[in-house]
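Researcher: I've been going back and forth with a colleague about how Cytidine deaminase might be arranged in three dimensions. Neither of us has a model we trust, so I'd like an independent prediction. The organism is Lysinibacillus telephonicus, in case that matters for your notes. Sequence below.
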Amino acid sequence: MDMKSLIEQSKIARQKAYVPYSKFPVGAALLTEDGQVYLGCNIENSSYGLANCAERTAIFKAVSEGVTKFTGLAVVADTDRPCSPCGACRQVISEFCSPDMPVYLTNLKGDLQQTTVGELLPGAFTPEDLDNAGKQKL
Ligand SMILES: O=c1ccn([C@H]2C[C@H](O)[C@@H](CO)O2)c(=O)[nH]1
Ligand SMILES: [Zn+2]
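Model: Here is an independent structure prediction for Cytidine deaminase. You can compare it with whatever you and your colleague have in mind.
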């Protein structure tokens, strides 16, 4: 799937957002290695801190079905600048996607900021950091 189609898919995902509190719908479309697309929207809660962002919804849907290899991510919201993922999502994206994977940040006006996972979170904490750590030395 090409970049434009992935961005279109993120807009379709956005239409499912559950955002009674922020009224700020976000959509994400995550492309897998074998060409499938997982859609995600933000899902809020009356306990506000429990909101799940669109990006993490898409990733958690895929991982929960055993799919962990990704080749692209598109994000869209009705923002002035292309929608910028929050810090929590940047960390979760970094867990599953290689630093050179393209990320397409967009808005409804059609602005596009093409970036990468590594640019979104330079120096991310990784599973390798845990492997290389001293164990049980307090
Ligand atoms: O990249 C982003 C930024 C924000 N949100 C959500 C979280 C919350 O539901 C609403 C307002 O922050 O937007 C996302 O889903 N993705
Ligand atoms: Zn987020």
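Researcher: What would you highlight for our discussion?
Model: I'd start with this: The longest strand covers residues 70-77. After that, consider the following. The mean pLDDT is 96.
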